[in-house]
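2024-03-11 09:14:02 DEBUG pipeline.ingest accepted 1 chain
2024-03-11 09:14:02 DEBUG pipeline.ingest length=255
2024-03-11 09:14:03 DEBUG pipeline.predict start
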Amino acid sequence: MLNLTPFVLWLQQFPNELNLMLMYVFGVLSLGILYKFFGKSGVYIFMTLGVIIGNMQVLKAMQISLFQEPIAMGTVIFMITFLATDILAEFHGRAAARKAIWSGFFGIIFLTGMMMLTIGVQPLLPLSGANVEHFNEAHYAMQTLFMPAPALFIASLTAYLISQYTDVQIFLAVKKITEGRSLWLRSFVSTALSSLVDNVIFSVLAWKILAPLDIDTYTLIFTYILGTYVLRLMLTGLNAVVLYFFKKRAIPIIK
């Protein structure tokens, strides 16, 4: 069996900021390969996988030099999903972008449902004759990953749907206003605003309404809402640049 532990330990020696950049590059390259070989269907695949991976990553926190407090992961992959919907909105139209949004939504619903049924199967008993310890460790690991608090699950999916729809609407509105010029502008503006919408909805729903924490409004705004927004703005700028590289592969929508 291939042992990836040395590779993981090697990656852990890097600064977290470098690992985030590697994650962004790997994600964008993966999106590009899927788009090159499968067209918009490849973007649907990426959206489905991206939303699933992002919702798993947010269970892990990390420390980076920009922030005093640890931040939840998932920001990088979610920002690439905004790039994916911008690609579809720009080159294939509103309907294709919306289809991608829903493919990601139903992907996480399907995964969660299937894993709930999987976890619902009882762990092995000690006298079953199998390698009980190995299989039961896997059972409890799945339980940790796929049984998030319902409040966080609802907040995440709600923020995802609203922010992605906001991104597409703003992107196409700016495109119309600028008469198709300044691709970088509509990409940056739509992603920057929709990312803020995502942070606000998730933070308010998760930490104030559905699973309230004992935090004041100042902390909610400057730690939970604006905390990772600086990182999101940096990635938004990268998305605006990367979008130009996808123009060479684009199949413009027939009007």
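2024-03-11 09:14:41 DEBUG pipeline.report The radius of gyration is 20 Å.
2024-03-11 09:14:41 DEBUG pipeline.predict end
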